[in-house]
Design goal:
The structure is a single chain. With 315 residues, this protein is α+β, with helices and mostly antiparallel strands. It folds into 2 domains: 3-139, no CATH class; 143-314, START domain (Alpha-D-Glucose-1,6-Bisphosphate, Chain A, domain 4, 2-Layer Sandwich), CATH 3.30.530. The protein is 52% helix and 21% strand. The protein is built from 8 helices and 7 strands. The protein has a 7-stranded antiparallel β-sheet, with helices on one face. A hairpin with a 2-residue loop joins strand 6 and strand 7.
Length: 315
């Protein structure tokens, strides 16, 4: 493949898709269907259409290869320009990859198997994507849910409650999800143990200040967050990055511990988190959010269980 062909079939889609992605993120402020579906489809479409213009009819494998090359260059540009992190690019791949393939296959059937006007049709596609970016904020909305995880503690509610109140440094796990940069709990401290008191939780990405809403010893501790550090630290081989989706697109405003006696000297300890997230499609990003929340819950619950059972054994 000559430099001219590569510049046209790879470079032009990268520039156009990069510009539209910038509009979606920084102007429309929506990480949604236009960004994760329409823009990737356009990459496959444009790369395949421009390959037809530059080299004439080619095979489907050539079209898919040039589309994949354009997507790879764009993803690399996001990393080099510090616009995004590696983990989030990988998380978006199950959404974007099928759309890149679809765009390439449709363009192949129209331009390489038939004689459609590639320039005119591609201009229409770009206009449609631009329109989708412009109107999506009118229809975009956040999704909310609650995640609950429970564990059996072989200690009384009194010992379990004491372990919760005495939480301090939490041993750092080495789960793969934390290695991706998801915020990991490091330390918890109750400043004032009462309703309307304060609880301070140190995460690997910052400090969360929480106001206690419910203080019922041996039964329930519920709080509302007053600050929100980033939910994760992006991995980028070139530099530290701080993309917009780390600020305000995911929030966990409330959490709680609930204790219920299970049997003699046993307690069912439940950790709940209420959260909202702004990314679309909600069903997909909700899965990632809840996966991360489940890991955080498990980390804290297991630490509380071990502390309570250790104290119960000594007593």
């Amino acid at each position: 493949m000559t430099f001219r062909v590569a510049l046209l079939a790879v470079g032009v889609p990268v520039v156009i898709a990069g510009a539209l992605a910038y509009l979606a993120i920084y102007v429309s402020g929506v990480y949604g269907f236009a960004l994760f579906f329409a823009v990737p489809l356009m990459i496959g479409w444009l790369a395949t259409a421009l390959l037809r213009i530059a080299r004439g009819p080619r095979s489907l494998s050539d079209c898919l290869s040039i589309s994949a090359a354009a997507a790879l260059v764009l993803a690399s540009a996001f990393l080099v320009m510090r616009a995004e992190g590696l983990a989030c690019i990988l998380m978006a791949l199950p959404l974007s990859a099928p759309m890149i393939i679809l765009g390439s296959v449709v363009a192949y059937s129209l331009f390489h198997r038939r004689e459609w006007n590639a320039i005119r049709a591609s201009a229409i596609v770009v206009t449609i994507v631009l329109t989708a970016i412009a109107i999506e904020p009118r229809f975009h909305h956040s999704s909310s849910a609650v995640v609950a995880d429970s564990i059996l503690v072989r200690a009384s509610p009194r010992e379990t409650w004491r372990a919760i109140v005495a939480l301090d440094r939490i041993p750092q796990p080495h789960d793969w999800i934390y290695r991706l940069g998801v915020a990991c709990p490091q330390r918890t401290r109750i400043v004032s143990p009462a309703t309307n008191g304060l609880r301070v939780c140190t995460m690997s990405t910052g400090v969360v200040v929480e106001q206690i809403e419910v203080w019922r010893p041996e039964a329930m501790l519920r709080w509302r967050s007053q600050s929100a550090p980033p939910p994760m630290k992006e991995l980028n081989p070139f530099a530290d990055v701080d993309p917009p989706h780390l600020h305000g697109y995911y929030e966990a405003p409330r959490g709680e511990f609930a204790l219920a006696p299970a049997a003699t000297n046993m307690t069912i300890l439940t950790r709940r988190t209420w959260y909202t997230q702004e990314l679309a499609p909600a069903y997909y990003w909700r899965w990632w959010c809840e996966l991360a929340i489940n890991h955080v819950h498990r980390t804290v619950l297991e630490h509380v269980r071990d502390a309570a059972e250790s104290k119960g054994a000594r007593s």
